[in-house]
């Protein structure tokens, strides 16, 4: 391994260890929890009584944060292709969000209610081939945006993991048509070298512009 490569690997490991240790110490299921905590501290998405949908929820860090911060009459509906151990205050659906039948299950759970916040931290398994991984990731983000546009209350928020690269500008354009404001967030717990960023749509418009 070259010197640069090995020091990069050391930095990555050190960075990961720091957040993993903090997550264990503070009782969060994943270090991802810190990303949502930081964004929510700044942007105040989650309020007591919020109805929240958490897409790509396992192992459950974001759901824990959402359940805690929307407690009261709030409700968190979480979905993942992988199983997730129960979290108090969270309804969990297991399934692939790309499948129509799974979407219908989620809609059934909502029973016509509109949502305050749609979260998506979905990420496909990485093959290492950019030409395969980027479109897969973008497709999940597009589905999450589509769902948000259909199910958010006017004024609601959408927070979504996106990877900068092909398709990013189109997604941003689509988001800007549906929200009064679209912001980019890169929380500290997101690896600095990763192309991962979070798009935050604020104030969902009643109809696209
Ligand atoms: C980065 S993890 C989410 C971490 C989570 N936010 C937390 O705080 O613990 C990404 C998740 O997206 C899920 N995922 C990927 N593709 C999916 C799909 N098609 N449908 C549902 N979930 C999916 C993965 O199974 C994985 O659990």
List the helices and strands and how they pair.
Layout: H1 3-26, H2 32-43, E1 51-55, H3 61-69, E2 75-80, E3 90-94, H4 100-110, E4 115-120, H5 130-151, E5 152-163, H6 168-178, E6 179-185, E7 196-204
Parallel strand pairs: 1-2, 1-4, 2-3, 4-5
Antiparallel strand pairs: 5-7, 6-7
Helix pairs in contact: 2-3, 5-6
Residues 29-30, 32-33, 56-62, 79-82, 96-98, 121-124, 140 line the site of S-adenosylmethionine.
CATH second-level architecture: 3-Layer(aba) Sandwich
The H/E string reads HHEHEEHEHEHEE
| Main pleated-sheet profile | 7 strands, mixed
CATH class: Alpha Beta
Q: Which structural class is indicated by helix and strand composition? A: alpha/beta
What's the structural domain tally?
1
The hetero compounds bound to this protein are: S-adenosylmethionine
Q: Percent of residues in beta strands?
A: 15-25%
Query: CATH homologous superfamily - what is it?
Result: Vaccinia Virus protein VP39
Mean pLDDT comes to 95
Helix share of residues?
A: 40-55%
Characterize the overall form: globular
Side by side, the strands of the main sheet go 3-2-1-4-5-7-6
Q: How many DSSP E strands?
A: 7
Question: Any descriptors?
Answer:
single chain, 209 residues, alpha/beta, Rossmann fold, seven-stranded mixed β-sheet, 6 helices, 43% helix, 24% strand, binds S-adenosylmethionine
Fold and architecture overview:
This protein has 209 residues and is an alpha/beta fold. It has a single domain (29-204), classed as 3-Layer(aba) Sandwich (Rossmann fold), CATH 3.40.50.150. Helices cover 43% and strands 24% of the residues. The chain has six helices and seven strands; from the N terminus they run ααβαββαβαβαββ. It has helices at residues 3-26, 32-43, 61-69, 100-110, 130-151, 168-178, and strands spanning 51-55, 75-80, 90-94, 115-120, 152-163, 179-185, 196-204. It has a seven-stranded mixed beta sheet, with helices on both faces. Helix 5 links the parallel strand 4 and strand 5 (152-163). Helix 2 (32-43) packs parallel to helix 3 (61-69) and helix 5 runs parallel beside helix 6. The longest helix is centred in the N-terminal third of the chain and has 24 residues, at 3-26. The mean pLDDT is 95. Bound molecules: S-adenosylmethionine. S-adenosylmethionine binds next to helix 2, helix 3 and strand 2.
